[in-house]
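User: Show me a protein chain along with its predicted structure.
Assistant: Here is one chain, sequence first, then structure tokens.
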Amino acid sequence: MLFKNKLNKTFNVWILADDRVGSRSQSISVADALEVNYHIKDIIYGFFAFLPNKLLGASFISLTTESQKNLSPPWPELVISSGRRTAPVARKIRSLARKSGIDSFLVHIMDPGCCREEFGLIAVPRHDGKVRGSNILAITGAPHQITKKNLENEAELWHMRLKHLKKPLIALIVGGSTKHRYFTTKMAQELASWASNMALNTGGSLLITTSRRTGDSAKNLIESITVPCQIFRWDEKEKSDNPYKAFLALADAIIVTGDSSSMCSEACGCEKPVYIYAPSALTAPKHRRLHQDLYKMGYARPLTAESLHHEWTHPPLNAAGEIAQEIIRCLEKR
């Protein structure tokens, strides 16, 4: 284990994993980057979860009784959490652990909103806005579980299933509507047209996957594709294996919609060309800030009607690795 090798001691590590898939994945990706064994503590919220963190304090009040029972000794030396709602839980764990003589080190991804001084390390995406403090680590994008090993495994599982498609293979990763932004029929048709043109001009094929947020526009997008393709619709997920990671692994280039920082970060975690489709009506200001960072740092380029797939590469975007290295640095100083 990396901790044992670097620090000459073993750690009891807890992951606070709630019902938000993105938050859960980010915490696990950091633990994986540390190469440690860890315990996933499933967090189930109760009635009081809607309260602001200032009112909740360091407590388990926001959890169901069953979820509270799952948080019991032996207490962890390291806690990794993500998102606003897990912050009070992490703080309570630290308080209880201290009474047992254990000084838990809290690592939190995204701004906990209050009591930042109680966390040993807070990793905050730059595009979310500035948060200042000696324990703040600014990261680009979101931590993710896209690694070279994972991609190799997915490619091995899927390459024979996709061998009938002409190369280059261009992955089209489609998100959709968010709380205040809508992925419209017009956008779906435009994206399909631009992606089809890129494949047509290179003599290749598309690997298309949609998400829950794509909604009814998925049908419009799929009907507008004019080149050979392999399609996976989110509403078919119960019928077949999800090829999302395989598409990232086997693609020669990636087109991704800009409505999700996680999807953009995962695409940029691959060492291959990434093009972001981000019309202003779909893209929130914080996502636009992320896109600009990715463009400036050479991880991605904007998708336009004239975009052509060219051979270019970049280092993998790896926020999880950055956080892991900072955790090690902090713990070595203790």
